[in-house]
Amino acid sequence: MSIPYTPPPDNGLTVLFADASLLVVNKPAGLLSVPGRGDDKQDCLASRVQAEYPDALIVHRLDMSTSGLLVLARGEAMQSEINRLFRERAVDKRYLAVVDGMLAEEGGEIDLPLICDWPNRPRQKVDHDIGKRSLTRFTRLDVDEASQTTRVALEPITGRSHQLRVHMAALGHPILGDELYGGPAEHKAPRLLLHAMDLAFVHPLSGEALAFHCPPDF
After folding, report:
1. 62, 71 in Cβ contact below 8 A?
2. Which of 24, 127, 148, 178 is the most exposed place for a label (fewest CB within 10 A)?
3. Taking 90 as the threshold, does the pLDDT of residue 145 lie above it?
4. Check: CATH 3.90.45.10 for 95-194?
5. What does the domain layout of the chain look like in residue ranges?
6. What's the rounded Cα separation, in Å, for the pair 85 and 59?
7. Max intra-chain CA distance, the chain
8. Which residues pair with 98 in a beta bridge?
9. Would you say residue 1 has pLDDT above 60?
10. Residue 29, Cβ neighbours under 10 Å: how many?
């Protein structure tokens, strides 16, 4: 039985940047980036933004459970340009997560190929035979001995579905509140403690270097 979709209340958009070409907004946790299947899954970030900016188009997505920074293009021509930036990995993204356990390493890379776990979709899995190369850089920020947790900064070099969640679970430090990969860590937080905190890229029209920071609420 599927869990009913209960999006957070619409308390207005948090817009960090808006011009005639693009928007940068903060997506709340629990809200779909785009409409899902069924009439009950039409409330999403895209529809809320389009209520104020009718020409806004999604460029990339965050998991429903993930909060944080999202870019939307204004019009199809700009959508194509920003899609190109993401495709060419010209967008720097940094996430903050709270993971289970005491992370021993100060930082490093997780290089594990991922593919959809088709019988159990939307789950993804590590597959060294047919998985697509997936690379995440991580930096330990702080450890909490009392709760046996670690705050980490995560930088996805590739952009696979659920990449950060699968990679941290594979490292033995699942993200707290993760209902798919967390195991016992799922119940250690009321939500997935993963937030898209930093975003930086060059404006496709003006050439201006844009950088945005949005701290998490956890």
Report:
1. no
2. 148
3. yes
4. no
5. 95-194
6. 10
7. 51
8. 151
9. no
10. 22
Look up residue 90 and give its amino acid: A
Vertex 188, ends 187 and 190: CA angle to 5°?
A: 75
The residue with tokens 């011009």 is 19
pTM of the model: 0.96
- Give the separation between CA 14 and CA 204, rounded to whole angstroms: 22
Enter the tokens of residue 210.
Answer: 């844009």
Give how far the C-alpha of residue 181 lies from the chain's centroid of Cα atoms, to the nearest Å. 15
- Per-residue pLDDT reduced to its tens digit, 117-137: 999 999 999 999 999 999 999
User: Following CA atoms 24, 30, 36, 41 in sequence, which dihedral angle do they give, to the nearest 10 degrees?
Assistant: -120
Supply the Cα-derived Rg of the chain in whole angstroms.
Answer: 17
pLDDT value of position 2 = 59
Please write the tens of the pLDDT for every residue from 148-179. Answer: 999 999 999 999 999 999 999 999 999 999 99
106 forms bridges with which residues in the sheet? none
Instruction: Please confirm whether the linkage preceding 122 is cis (ω < 30° from 0).
Output: yes
63 catalytic per annotation:
yes
pLDDT tens per residue, range 82-100: 999 999 999 999 999 999 9
Alpha carbon distance 56, 78 (integer Å): 10
Inter-CA distances, 191 with 14, 138, 217, Å: 20, 21, 11
Give the containing element (helix H, strand E) for 82.
helix 76-87
Per-residue tokens: 159: 């952009």
Beta strands in the chain (DSSP E): 15-18, 22-27, 56-58, 67-74, 92-100, 107-111, 114-116, 124-126, 135-144, 149-156, 194-202, 209-213
- The residue from 19, 40, 43, 63 that is catalytic is 63
Residues in the chain: 218
